[in-house]
Backbone:
């Protein structure tokens, strides 16, 4: 088995046994959907309402990501897993890629739960737009690629949980613009052609951030 | 080593004098050389709500500070990314000073861009009341985010106590800041926008075109001077810390 495969297997097994990421991210997301629902309960279900709800769900996803990334990074550093992984004779980029894929899987599961809650509670018309199944993972990769990189540092800093949000949000604004733009275009019925510029922006951001993450992760964690 | 440092100080001071002179010339030209004429098509702007074009009158003079400051912010963004790459490759402390200095100067010139843009927008797009022109359009929003990213770099450096970790964070975040300016630049193409796409109407007046070119050069030299002085200052502070701890 390749080093990447072994590390990914390790990430997924740890998560399946402890469910530490899924439980914290899913609970946070569920609470967010409930709070948004309480905030908008008196509003009419018109187009503005749907656009607002979708924007709020993107914000909830972002903060669920931050919660998960912090949890994973702090736990690794506290138990010195991270130092042990860095000592192993393989490219540090493998650690980055395996963490990215593992958190992506957990985030997609969390978003599935959010959608399942939002469809009845917030009158979300998610399944009218199958292309959202492409937009969501693309946006997730764009958020997580710099997130995993920065969390590996903030996990080592006292009070770093708050710093991750401060560092991450300005960097992922292009991803957010792309995600919100594509969602809006699909919601307005413009289809794939209308969402194309935003999907292109998401594709560029995903490629750029993932490449930077692979290149910089080892440098950032040299001791 | 000391001779190199003296030369760097001389270069920084010469740049500062040139930059100061450039800014003074820019201010003079923007107030006394450029016209106030209001020929339709030259100094008019289309309002965001699609209404009739309004005359800019004297308000366009803020453009000679706003546009060069935006160029300066872009340069700061490029310098942080360049400094970050060089810091990771060479590990020389001077590149860390460059990243920090460019971020600090970027924070100042970015604030100038946001402030002058908002003041002008209050007049051109809003009701004249402070803040009435801020309409969350893509160019304004992305510029604000870039400014916050500069602030994040400065704040996070202060929160990290371990020197090696601080250097690594500075380098990596400097590199991550790099792609943000192209986003600011392209923001007006992403969505409909009330921000002017180009200034061809304004530039049709030769006095305005010339003043804009002089302003751009003057402010960029002033920016280089500020970054160079700040780098020297940071290097001096680092040397003093090292001597104290020795």
Residues:
């Amino acid at each position: 088995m390749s080093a990447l495969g072994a590390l990914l297997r390790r990430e997924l097994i740890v998560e399946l046994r402890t469910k530490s990421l899924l439980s914290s991210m899913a609970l946070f997301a569920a609470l967010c959907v409930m709070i948004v629902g309480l905030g908008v309960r008196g509003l009419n279900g018109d187009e503005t309402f749907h656009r607002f709800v979708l924007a709020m769900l993107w914000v909830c996803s972002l903060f669920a990501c931050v919660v998960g990334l912090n949890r994973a990074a702090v736990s690794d550093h506290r138990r010195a897993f991270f130092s042990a992984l860095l000592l192993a004779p393989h490219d540090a980029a493998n650690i980055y890629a395996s963490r990215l894929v593992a958190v992506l899987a957990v985030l997609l599961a969390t978003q599935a739960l959010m959608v399942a809650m939002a469809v009845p509670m917030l009158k979300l018309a998610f399944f009218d737009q199958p292309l959202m199944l492409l937009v969501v993972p693309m946006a997730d990769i764009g958020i997580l690629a710099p997130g995993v990189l920065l969390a590996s540092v903030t996990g080592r800093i006292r009070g770093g949980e708050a710093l991750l949000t401060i560092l991450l949000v300005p960097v992922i604004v292009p991803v957010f613009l792309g995600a919100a733009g594509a969602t809006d275009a699909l919601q307005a019925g413009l289809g794939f052609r209308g969402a194309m510029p935003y999907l292109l922006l998401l594709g560029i951001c995903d490629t750029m951030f993932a490449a930077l993450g692979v290149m910089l992760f080892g440098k950032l964690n040299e001791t | 080593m000391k001779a190199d440092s003296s030369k760097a100080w001389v270069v920084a001071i010469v740049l500062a004098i040139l930059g100061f002179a450039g800014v003074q010339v820019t201010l003079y030209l923007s107030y006394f050389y450029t016209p106030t004429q209001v020929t339709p098509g030259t100094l008019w702007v289309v309002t965001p709500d699609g209404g009739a074009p309004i005359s800019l009158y004297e308000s366009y003079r803020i453009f000679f500070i706003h546009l060069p400051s935006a160029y300066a912010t872009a340069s700061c963004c490029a310098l942080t990314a360049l400094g970050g790459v060089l810091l990771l490759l060479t590990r020389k402390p001077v590149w860390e000073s460059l990243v920090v200095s460019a971020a600090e100067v970027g924070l100042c010139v970015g604030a100038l861009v946001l402030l002058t843009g908002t003041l002008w927008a209050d007049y051109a797009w809003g009701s004249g009341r402070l803040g009435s022109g801020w309409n969350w359009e893509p160019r304004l929003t992305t510029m604000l985010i870039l400014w916050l990213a500069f602030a994040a770099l400065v704040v996070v450096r202060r929160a990290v106590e371990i020197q090696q970790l601080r250097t690594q964070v500075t380098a990596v975040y400097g590199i991550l800041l790099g792609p943000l300016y192209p986003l600011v630049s392209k923001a007006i193409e992403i969505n409909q926008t009330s921000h002017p796409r180009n200034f061809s109407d304004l530039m049709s007046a030769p006095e305005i075109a010339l003043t804009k070119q002089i302003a751009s050069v003057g402010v960029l030299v002033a920016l280089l001077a500020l970054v160079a002085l700040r780098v020297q200052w940071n290097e001096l502070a680092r040397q003093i810390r090292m001597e104290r701890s020795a």
Summary: Chain B has eight helices and two strands. The radius of gyration of chain B is 20 Å. The beta strands of chain B are 44-45, 54-55.
